[in-house]
Write a structure and sequence with these properties.
The chain has 148 residues and is α+β, with helices and mostly antiparallel strands. The chain has one helix at 27-49; strands at 3-9, 18-24, 54-56, 69-76, 87-89, 97-101, 110-115, 121-130, 138-147.
Length: 148
Amino acid sequence: MKVFYLIYKKYFISGPMILSFCTCNKKGEILMKIKLIAIFSILLILTGCGKKYTITPDELPVAHVNQKYHQVIHISGGKVIDKDQPLNTNIPKDLGITVQPANDRDGYNIIEVKGTPKYKGTFTIHIWVGFYAGGGNKIDKTYAFTVQ
């Protein structure tokens, strides 16, 4: 006669709770199943902790005087915390180039560098961002913006 066991375990896989029903003949079988479930859960949790945050492109293309310029900087891997000043630049206002988030919905996850530069020079765009639920992860990147 088979004994039915109900194993109730909480798993943090996108929030739901999973009920596992095991049909086992011996207590040893159920212990082995519990160990396998525990090992699987630990591996799943560890893989979830290895989230990768990226910023692209690696470098900004060169801009040219009196020619339209448009480049999008993408930050991926999580939602950027945009309560601080994550964006600093030494680009003068009279250059004709703006550096700002593309829209309110995406915030600092999508940053646009656009406009028509009026004179030559090399400038910097410094981006420093953290992430919601990012565990202290951050991106700290400085771009060189060159106008020829």
